[in-house]
Amino acid sequence: MLYAIRQRVERHYDIHHDHRVDIAVGIEIALDSFEVDHGFYPKSLQDLLQQPSGTTNWHGPYLNPPKLPVDPWGHKYIYEYPGKHNTNGYDLFSAGPDGKPGTGDDIVNWE
Prior knowledge:
three-stranded antiparallel sheet; about 110 residues; about 25% helix; Glycoprotein, Type 4 Pilin
C-alpha cells in the first residue's frame, strides 16, 4: 500500500533522506495493529498514542517512540477513516512538498 508513497517520495526527495519515508510504513503497521486489537481502525492518528474513550482492548501506544511522525517535508500525515478512496479501510497521505492537500504532488496510499 505504501509502496506507491515510497516511489513518489523517492522521485521528489533526495534518496539520502529515504529513511524518513520508512516512518510512514510505521504508521501503517500501527494502524493495522490497532485494527487487530479493536476490529476497526482508529478515528484519528492520535488514537494510536492515547486510548480513545470507550475502548477496552487498547494495547498502545502503537508507535515507538510515542509521537506522530511527519513526512519528509515536515508536514503531518493526513489520515481519514473511513477512507474516501479506500472505502473498506483508510486513506493515509502526505500533502507533498507544497504542504497543500489535493494538489499534484500529494503522496497517497490509494494509487
